[in-house]
Amino acid sequence: MRAKHPSSPAVDVAASEPQEPKAPKPAPMRTRRARKGPVVPDAATVAEIFRRFHAANPEPKGELEYVNPYTLLVAVVLSAQATDAGVNKATRPLFAVVDTPQKMLAFGEERLRDAIKTIGLYRNKAKNVIALSQQLIERFGGEVPRTREELESLPGVGRKTANVVLNIAFGAPTIAVDTHLFRVANRIPLAPGKTPLAVELGLEKIVPEPYRRHAHHWLILHGRYVCKARKPDCGRCIINDLCRYEAKTI
């Protein structure tokens, strides 16, 4: 059977060749970039990074000064949006006379405000320290609790503060993500993430077990003194050959 077009010669529909289907359009570039993501190191490279940190500094220490778990907790609460050096300057004379929750309550909020007035947000921090001291006595027998959930239930204590206390005071392999660690983890990139929690959970998955306890200390100190925010000192970096930061200075 032949089909005719008014203005065209007769065409045998059954015998005509079918047209090839059109090729699918390529995916938008933004989709490809999103799927690609940062190139993270493999397990062997991660292990080598922390091996070098350990070799250079086997027992890294936090820079906040304290005398027991309680004063460590207070110091970390006071360090929010403040430098460790500034907190230490205020707490040295304070901790010489106040080193328990009971003594802090006897010391009082007004005197505490005067003692820490050189630290940013000191009024609210003094209120939190008094409140958490009261709760430590009422709920935990004056002792600093050893779980993240219990620590985070105290006034002024968030996840990062809880992780610092658990790690330094009790030896737990927690990872406290501050601005320095967050920057380094995304720069290398080691455990890239858009939030501190994402970086923390990413590091927990990849840091080899022997290095977990000190991992956050090494990364914080590296970010504070070498991989600095404005101008990283890549010439002094012991992992510069393993780092994939595009703006390296070497």
The rounded Rg comes to: 29 Å
Strand count: 0
Note poorly predicted spans. Answer: 1-35
Helical/strand content category:
mainly alpha
Number of discrete helical segments: 12
> What average pLDDT do the residues reach?
87
Beta-strand residue percentage: under 5%
Write down the secondary-structure element order: HHHHHHHHHHHH
Q: In whole angstroms, how far apart are the ends?
A: 77 Å
The largest β sheet comes out as: none
Overall shape: it is: elongated
Report helical residue fraction. Answer: 40-55%
Structure write-up:
There is one protein chain. By secondary structure, the chain is mainly alpha-helical. It is 51% helix and 0% strand.
Give a topology summary.
Elements: H1 29-36, H2 43-56, H3 69-78, H4 84-97, H5 101-107, H6 109-115, H7 122-140, H8 148-152, H9 159-170, H10 179-187, H11 196-206, H12 215-225
Helix pairs in contact: 3-9, 5-7, 6-7, 10-12
List keywords for this structure.
single chain, 250 residues, mainly alpha, elongated, disordered N terminus
Sum this structure up briefly.
By secondary structure, this protein is an all-alpha fold.
